SRPBCC domain-containing protein (Thalassococcus arenae), 145 residues
Amino acid sequence: MTTITKTVHLPAARHVVWDHLTRADLLGKWFHPAEADLAVGRDFVLRSARDGDRMCWGRVVSADPVAHLRWTFTVGPLNGRMTRVDWHLAELPGGTRLTLEHSGLPDDADAFGLILALDKGWHGFVGDLQGIAMQDLPRPVAETT
């Protein structure tokens, strides 16, 4: 199975990044608008901001707030195949390291175009989140000793 991995460093506290992964109003700022906040055991649908079409959907499988979030995940071109998206958040001095692992993707030659499209899409979305973090998000409080 193919896995796409992306890591970005964000100048924001983990709880702020977590909110951007789980709150409907914030998901729409960097990914796709959600119909509701994401919560363990609940299905989710993310829609196009442009026309409201269903873009991707799945279920929140597990959550360890501010550390790890796992979704099942699919998009139309996967023809019903459910994949897995894991988000890992690590606290860093001055911010958060966010790693995305999208696994369970097909690995045959016919699917390579889809893998390229998903890879490009994730690259853009996490880049958008990084752009928001660089400009708009509250910075972590610096430790003083």
The longest strand covers residues 54-64. Strands lie at 2-10, 43-47, 54-64, 68-75, 83-92, 95-105. Helices lie at 14-22, 24-30, 112-135.
